[in-house]
Structure to design on (754 residues):
């Protein structure tokens, strides 16, 4: 279970604070009373799960504790773990079928969430699998974004389509699709400029990019991944909602999980929008990247070892 | 309800409260419970919320409040005051060193917006007549140096970078000498983004600090940050010691609870907010104005300041004269439109108008299309001077020529002319209203008459 271990290692720090509070809570409480559940709710809120989800989780835990006649606070952890894992289970990203050639992955997100780095890691992951990868630098807005992606392409042995800064992103996408078709590339990963979901015109640009892809390849993009920084708060849910409306997300890449933030909002993104987490980013190097595993995530979040 | 803004929520809560004549302690408690939920959903840290509510409660349940003439109003006032206080009271800027150069060091997590903000700050100082120097000490993220160099070139501000260097300490070592030899009086050092729990990199930050001896260390925080904002701020403050905070990405719809949290745990003031991708989108942070924005009271002061900044007073007076004498021409129409555009995006302006903050959602659909503005400019610029002064001479063949010249259609020209005539009619009517209104209201326009 190498993947689960790497996820757990990465989460070691992020886990600590929640697990510590929870551990202290469990050791400090003698019975499953109202105080206990209130504190449990607070702990969940601190993980950015959101006030609504926190109260719903606690309610269902409370009910199960009653049904299964749980008396001891220490019995709560596995129950909570299963509850969270159950809420977050989605399709395994490794099993996403790479049938079409090219298999197109569109990567979107707000500024600074870690899109370009995640693309570098994705490219690395697929290169390791022996696939040919082409990355498209459709972030023509941010200064030096193309250079950043070019460096990643070099590092991972992927090919790149890159225009000058300020070029039309749709044109970059068009060229990259044409190139991927001509070269029979296995995987085409498209980097887009960071955009706040509230900028209507930029969201329209994203729709246009999608249309350009679909005109050339009716089945594509097979995946549209939203990159979310784990340090984000409740706004992440709003981001996911609006990006989903514009581009029909197939999954989320949860980045920067090696910090103390837990990305608890991912629970509501799955339950409210049905969009699962597909990948997690756990550091700056290309191998700090793993497919998301709901059980491992829930377990790592709540357990000390 | 899940997605509604903090201002929306609070306004609803307070409206409910205002409807009642007398308040019992239970009423106040119930209201504060709602305020608590609203703040939590706005990502204000759990512990910060707890303290905040406790403070408001002690003040709000006192007899002098509950038995006052308008208790609900009093509670709102207390919430507003406490919120302003929590965000730092008065507005504070960056202190200049008595002996230049003033060195400012930017620190923060990855992706918080350090590089962009460094460039924005440099522009801010250049505007004040200072001579800034940018230092590219983020050597970890690929192409971060190029990003800063590109921004520096756009702003015509020099960037200190060492080609091929991989140790940030080597870059910052010569900062002071470079600044002195190039007569630069403000130095802004961009550092690599790092996790607050990465002890090795945090240590490196301390080494950089020891070398550049910054006068101010600014922590850059993304306005969308959640509960973890507290850990981030505490750690950075604990390890390197920060002097101020810059909040970025305020142009999104984040409710900005992080603003309350970081200030509360570090005790350091928020000095600037970044609200857009362009280098001019940096504003001073005003706690009182932010509090009134959060509470949906609008921010008329910022709006007026913006107007004063962009409008030329003489031009505005001349325009008013023209409007009075009914001499308003298409040229004036164009100047007016251009100066409004200079003030910023329409969304930004709308958010500052009292009572509109909460209604932003409906307004988003009627966003003014920037392209439409460009088209109007092109049409007017394709007219002769005579036509601009007297649109009535624009006949069919002139319309055709203008449309061809501006790359638009005759219908577009027609629509613009119609709009212009309407605007002129409206101005005439408003002149009458203003004269009548002057006696009634003491509200002053930015460029009074």
């Amino acid at each position: 279970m190498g993947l689960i271990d790497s996820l757990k290692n990465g989460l070691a720090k992020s886990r600590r604070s929640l697990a510590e509070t929870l551990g202290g809570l469990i050791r400090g409480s003698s019975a499953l009373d109202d105080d206990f559940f209130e504190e449990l709710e607070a702990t969940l809120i601190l993980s950015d799960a959101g006030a609504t989800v926190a109260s719903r989780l606690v309610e269902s835990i409370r009910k199960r504790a009653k049904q299964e006649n749980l008396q001891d606070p220490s019995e709560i952890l596995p129950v909570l773990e299963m509850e969270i894992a159950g809420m977050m289970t989605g399709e395994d990203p490794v099993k996403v079928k790479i049938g079409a050639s090219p298999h197109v992955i569109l990567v979107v997100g707000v500024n600074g969430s870690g899109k370009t780095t995640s693309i570098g890691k994705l490219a690395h992951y697929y290169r390791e699998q022996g696939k040919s990868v082409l990355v498209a630098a459709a972030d023509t807005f941010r200064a030096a974004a193309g250079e950043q992606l070019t460096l990643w392409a070099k590092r991972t042995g992927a090919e790149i389509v890159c225009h000058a800064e300020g070029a039309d992103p749709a044109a970059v996408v068009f060229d990259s699709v044409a190139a991927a078709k001509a070269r029979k590339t296995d995987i085409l990963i498209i980097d887009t400029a960071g955009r706040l979901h509230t900028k209507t015109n930029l969201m329209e640009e994203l729709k246009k990019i999608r249309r350009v892809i679909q005109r050339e390849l009716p089945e594509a993009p097979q995946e549209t991944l939203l990159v979310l920084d784990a340090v984000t708060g409740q706004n992440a849910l709003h981001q996911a909602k609006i990006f989903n409306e514009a581009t029909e997300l197939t999954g989320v890449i949860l980045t920067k999980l090696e910090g103390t933030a837990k990305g608890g909002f991912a629970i509501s993104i799955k339950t409210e929008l049905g969009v699962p987490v597909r990948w997690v980013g756990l550091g700056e190097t290309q191998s700090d990247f793993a497919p998301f595993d709901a059980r491992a995530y829930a377990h790592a979040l709540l357990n000390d070892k | 309800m899940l997605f509604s803004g903090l201002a929306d929520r609070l306004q609803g809560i307070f409206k409910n409260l205002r409807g009642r004549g007398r308040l019992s302690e239970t009423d106040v408690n119930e209201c504060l419970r709602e305020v608590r939920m609203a703040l939590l959903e706005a990502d204000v840290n759990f512990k910060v919320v707890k303290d905040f509510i406790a403070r408001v409660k002690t003040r709000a349940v006192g007899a002098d409040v509950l038995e006052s003439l308008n208790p609900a109003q009093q509670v709102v006032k207390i919430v507003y005051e406490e919120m302003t206080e929590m965000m730092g009271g008065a507005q504070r800027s960056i202190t200049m060193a008595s002996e230049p150069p003033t060195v400012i060091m930017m620190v923060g997590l990855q992706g918080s917006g350090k590089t962009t903000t460094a460039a924005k700050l440099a522009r801010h100082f250049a505007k004040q007549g200072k001579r800034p120097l940018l230092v590219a000490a983020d050597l970890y993220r690929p192409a971060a140096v190029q990003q800063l160099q590109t921004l520096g070139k756009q702003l015509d501000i020099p960037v200190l970078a060492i080609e091929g260097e991989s140790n940030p300490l080597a870059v910052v070592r010569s900062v002071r000498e470079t600044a002195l030899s190039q007569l630069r009086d403000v130095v802004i050092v961009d550092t690599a983004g790092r996790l607050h729990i990465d002890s090795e990199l945090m240590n490196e930050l301390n080494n950089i600090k020891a070398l550049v001896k910054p006068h101010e260390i600014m922590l850059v925080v993304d306005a969308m940050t959640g509960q973890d904002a507290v850990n981030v701020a505490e750690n950075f403050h604990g390890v390197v010691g920060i002097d101020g905070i810059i909040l970025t990405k305020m142009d999104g719809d984040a409710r900005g609870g992080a603003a309350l949290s970081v200030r509360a745990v570090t005790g350091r003031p928020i000095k600037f907010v970044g609200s857009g991708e362009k280098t001019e989108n940096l504003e001073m942070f005003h706690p009182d104005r932010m509090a009134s924005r959060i509470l949906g009271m609008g921010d008329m002061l910022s709006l007026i300041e913006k107007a004063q900044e962009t409008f030329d007073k003489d031009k505005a007076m001349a325009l008013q004269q023209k409007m009075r004498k009914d001499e308003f021409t298409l040229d004036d129409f164009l100047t007016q439109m251009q100066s409004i555009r200079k003030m910023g995006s329409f969304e930004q302006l709308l958010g500052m108008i009292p009572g509109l903050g909460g209604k932003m959602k409906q307004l988003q659909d009627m966003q003014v299309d920037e392209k439409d503005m460009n088209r109007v400019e092109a049409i007017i610029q394709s007219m002769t001077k005579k036509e601009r002064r007297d649109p009535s001479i624009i006949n069919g063949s002139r319309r055709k020529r203008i449309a061809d010249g501006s790359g638009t259609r005759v219908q577009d020209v027609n629509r613009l002319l119609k709009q212009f005539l309407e605007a002129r009619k409206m101005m005439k009517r408003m002149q009458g209203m203003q004269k009548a209104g002057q006696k009634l209201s003491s509200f002053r326009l930015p460029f009074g008459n």
